[in-house]
Amino acid sequence: MSRGTAVRAAIALGLLAGFYVYALAWAVGIGLLALWAVRSFGVVLSLPVTVGCGVVAFGVLGGLLASLRKVPFEPGGRPLGRGEAPELWEFVEETARLAGTRPPDEIHLDEDVNAWVCEVGGLLGLLPGTRHLMIGLPFLSALPRGELRAIVAHECGHYVGHHTRLGPVTHRAQLAIGRVGERLRRQWWNPLAWPLVPYAVVFGLVATAVSRRQELEADRAAAGIAGADAMRAALRALRVVGAGWDFYLGAYVSHGLPHGLVPKGVLTGFQEMWDHRREFVARLETGLPIEPPGVFDTHPHLGVRLKALDGLPAEGTVDDEGEARDLLPATLWEACDGLVVDLDGRERVEWAAFTTRSYAAVQREIAEDAYRFLANETGVNPPTLTSVLWNYERGRGEALLAKLAGPLFPSHGLAAIVLSAAYDSDALYYAHHWGGALRLMRQGVRLSAAVGEPVTDPTPTGGFDDLAADVTYRDTDWDMAVTVHGLLLIPFEGRQPPKGLSETGRPYQRLRELVGRNSPLTYTRHETLWLPYAHWTSAHVENDKPLRLTFETRDGARHTLGEHYAPMRFGEPARLLRTRLAAYGIGR
To answer: Is residue 255 within 8 Å of residue 284, measured between CB atoms?
Structure first.
C-alpha cells in the first residue's frame, strides 16, 4: 500500500472511529445532563429535559447499533460468466494486466450509464478480497473500443491505487451517520441533537475531497493505458450516452410498456437508434444544463478532469479498433433486455408491430381522457366526436372550445381523438423508423369510429406535476406524485436505490428516478394507489410544509395524508394541489 493510500486509510478510519466516539460521548453527556436535572430540580420539574435527553440518547445509540449490523454485499445486475463473453473477459483482463493489477474476479452488467468497481475483503475492506466490475450496457452499446478501454482502465486505476480498500470504511461511516441522522430527523426541535450536524458536514467534506482526488488518480492511470485523447472522449461521452439512453427509452420504448408490450431487442434497438441519430443525440446533450461544482461532489467537475489530462501522452499503449458492442455475442444482448424493462406479463413483439400498436394505444389513452371531459361538458355518454360538432352547430362551440383550451382538457386531446378514429378506420398506421415514428395517413376517416368508452373514473395519465417523498397515508409510507387528475402514491418496495446510499439520501434518489421517467404509467408494475380528485367531495390543505391534507370521498369517509417533517420533495406540492383542487371545485 502506497504512502498516500495509507494516509487516506488512516483518515477514513479516524473519521469512522471519531464519529462513534463523538456520538457515544454525546449520548453519555446527555444522560449525565438528565441525571443532573433530576437531582437538581426533581422528577416533575426536570421532565421536559429528561424526555428530550432520552429521545436524543436512544436515537444516537439505536443508530450506532443499527450501523454495526453487517449488510451482505449484493452487486446487482447480471453476472457475466467467462464462457458467455470470452472476448469481454479477455479485454478486461488485458486492461488489468496493462495497469499492473489483479483483474476483477466477477464482471456484472446492468442498465445504468455508468461503470464502477469494488473489493469485498476482510477488516472493513482493508485486506484484499473479491473484486467486482460493473459495466453499464449503454456504454457497451454506444462506445468504440478505445473509449471503453479508457473507462475500464479508469476502474482498474482504482484497484492500482487501493481506492477500493477504503470504500467499505467510508461506507460504514456514512451508514453510521445516516442511521443516526435518520433517527434524529424528526427531533429538529431538540437543540440537544444539533451538535451532531457539524460532524456529519465535516465528514462529508473530507470524504468527498478524498474521493475527487482518487478519481483524478484513476483518470491519469487510464490515460497511461488508453491515451489522454481516448480518456477525454470517454469523459465527454458520459453525458452524450446518458442523453441518448434517456431519449431512446422515452421516445421509443416507454410508451408501449403500460400497454403490455415490449419490443424484441431493446438493447440492440438502442444501438440502431445510436447509429442513425448520433448527431441528433449530441445536440440533445448540448441543451442539458451543466451543474456547477459542489463541495459534496464525489467526482471532480468535467472541466477539472479534462484539464488534469493536459500534458499526458495522447496515444495509449494499445491500439483498439471497432465497437465495444462486438465484445458481447449477439445472443447475449437480447438475454439482457430484462435488465432494462420488466418482461413479466408483457408481450414481446417485433419493432414494426411494437411501434404501430404502442403509438395507437397511447393516442387512444389520450383520446379516452379527452372523451371523459367531453362527456361531462356535453352530457353524451359514451362521448363522441360528433357531439362536439353538434354543439358547435347549435352555437355552443365558442364556449366549448374555450373549455377545451383550459387546463383540464388533455393536451392534443382532439388530435388524439381524430388519430384514434383514423386508426380504427384503417386510415392510419404508424411505420417504425429509427429517424422517428412516421404517421402515414390515407383518406377515409369514419367519424362514427370516434367514440369513447363509457366514462367511469379518470386515470393517471400525463406527467408528474410535483413529487414528495415519505408521505404517510393509511399508516403506510409512500412517495407521492401530484398529477392533473389525482394523487398517485407509489410504494418504496421494489424501488429502493442501492444499499450503499445513506438512509437520508435514498428518498432523494427515489424522487430523481421518478423525475427521470416523469410518467405514472411507467410504474404500473408496482402496487400503486390512485386517488382521483373526481372521487372527492371536499378537500382542505391544512399545512404547506410539511404537507397536511384532509379530504372526504363520495362514500362519506374522511382521509388524512401528510409528509414527515423536513420532507424531501421537488417543487411545492401544497400550492399545486390547491390549484388542482380548485379546478375540480373541491379545494379550500
So the answer is: no
